[in-house]
Specification:
By secondary structure, this protein is an alpha/beta fold. Helix content is about 55%, strand content about 15%. The protein is globular and about 50 Å long.
Length: about 220
């Protein structure tokens, strides 16, 4: 199945470069480009992409605001944030806004295409450095919107265990190896976790785990 992608960046050369790289992939189709956040929100509603490659620093409406609006509209589009630096202070905010992951702008063509595929498939694209920083940020800021105990209590003991491993940035294969179960079993657990908690993807599940205090610095 072809993955439909919208590229959002205020620099024409960046948009064209990503468009060429992704357009060369047999399973990816670039269906449009947007020049800022406002344009992105309009194009998502009009074109219904599967994945949005979202720059952060743009005029009129930045990528954070656009991501929040796109997620709130429940369009089904997954947002993959593009950033120049892996220590960009906005990465944390973008994930809190509902982005499904982040990718550096200097990523290779293969990394870019693989990132789009991972996010489209509902996986979280989180580098270990970002996962660690998320935990540190939640520790520093506290839990202003901590989930209710009832929501955490809806999970079984095994589902809670899987949720913690997801929050640590582990893939389904790594979780399966750790728990000594089939990868299909892990996928089933993850799906049930998302349904029970009312979450869109693994990234939101990871943020939920941090806010619930299930994952702590050094944990």
């Amino acid at each position: 199945m072809t993955i439909r992608v919208l590229i959002v960046d205020d620099q024409m050369m960046v948009r064209e470069g990503f468009s060429v790289l992704l357009g060369a992939q047999p399973d990816i189709e670039v269906i449009g480009e947007a020049v800022d956040g406002l344009d992105a929100v309009r194009k998502v509603a009009e074109l219904r992409p599967d994945v949005v490659l979202m720059d952060i620093r743009m005029p009129n409406m930045n990528g954070l605001e656009a991501t929040r609006e796109i997620v709130a509209a429940d369009s089904g589009a997954k947002v993959l944030v593009l950033t120049t630096f892996d220590l960009d202070e906005y990465v944390y905010q973008a994930l809190r806004s509902g982005a499904s992951g982040f990718l550096l702008k200097d990523a290779s063509a293969r990394q870019l295409a693989d990132g789009v595929r991972v996010v489209a498939d509902g996986e979280a694209l989180l580098a270990p450095t970002v996962t660690k920083r998320l935990i540190q940020e939640f520790s520093r800021l506290g839990t202003p919107k901590a989930p209710t105990p009832e929501r955490v209590g809806d999970l079984t003991e095994r589902e809670t265990e899987v949720l913690v491993l997801v929050a640590q940035g582990r893939s389904n294969a790594e979780i399966a190896e750790h728990l000594v179960v089939a990868e299909s079993t892990v996928k089933t657990h993850v799906s049930r976790i998302l349904v029970k908690l009312g979450l869109r993807d693994r990234t939101q599940a990871a943020v939920f785990a941090y806010e619930a205090g299930l994952v702590r610095p050094g944990g």
